[in-house]
Specification:
It contains two helices and seven strands. The chain has about 190 residues and is an alpha+beta fold. The protein has one domain (about 35-185). The strands form two sheets. Strands 2-1-3-4-7 form a five-stranded antiparallel sheet, with helices on one face. It has a two-stranded antiparallel ribbon with strand order 5-6. It is rod-shaped and about 115 Å long. The relative contact order is 0.14.
Length: about 190
């Protein structure tokens, strides 16, 4: 390497050549292409985690609310002639509260929730150890000792999910239904 009369490198040997810059750019691009999918996966996992947390919180809060209710609370009554009470609710996008029904075109539901109540006599456990003979709503209240409350929560997006390969898929991933069951005794 020769220095010019001023003791510096000639102009053509200073800095980076176009070829060197292109090679460095290609290497940087290859590295960036490998990292970008990680950011997309991280975002998807964060959204899935938030949705799973919200779903479980909505289910647990409903069960905790019903656990605090008196045994003969109207929300825990089984209708006469039937063996199960089923209530459909939706989380109103407009009002941000739970409402009875499935939502309307003007007030779509972000979340859906189904609350099922069945009632049993404690002697039902004697034959096989399982509550499998629910009592009707018009039974003598003295014969009802246990109420089973089941709360199931899911995203309303799952109602529109497509079926692919036998699995329900949503825009963010697998369909999730969160179910909480409790037994309430008299």
């Amino acid at each position: 390497m020769e220095l010019d009369s001023g003791g510096e490198l000639p102009m053509r040997e200073r800095g980076f050549s176009v070829v060197e810059v292109l090679i460095a750019s290609v290497i940087f691009l290859i590295i960036a292409m490998g990292i970008l999918p990680l950011f997309a996966a991280s975002t998807k996992n964060n959204l899935d985690g938030r949705e799973a947390t919200e779903t479980s919180n909505f289910g647990r809060s409903a069960v905790e609310d019903l656990l605090q209710a008196p045994f003969n609370d109207p929300r825990l009554l089984v209708p006469a002639g039937g063996t199960v009470s089923t209530v459909q609710e939706y989380y109103s996008k407009k009002d941000q509260v739970w409402k009875t029904g499935t939502g309307t075109g003007l007030d779509t539901g972000l979340w859906r929730r189904q609350i099922r109540v069945r009632q049993f006599n404690i002697n039902d456990l004697a034959d096989n150890g399982v509550f499998d003979d629910p009592k009707r709503g018009d039974e003598d209240l003295g014969q009802v000792h246990i109420k089973e409350v089941e709360v199931q929560v899911w995203s309303s997006r799952d109602d529109k999910a497509v079926l692919e390969g036998g699995r329900r898929l949503t825009t963010l991933g697998m369909s999730r239904r969160f179910t909480v069951r409790m037994l309430k005794s008299m």
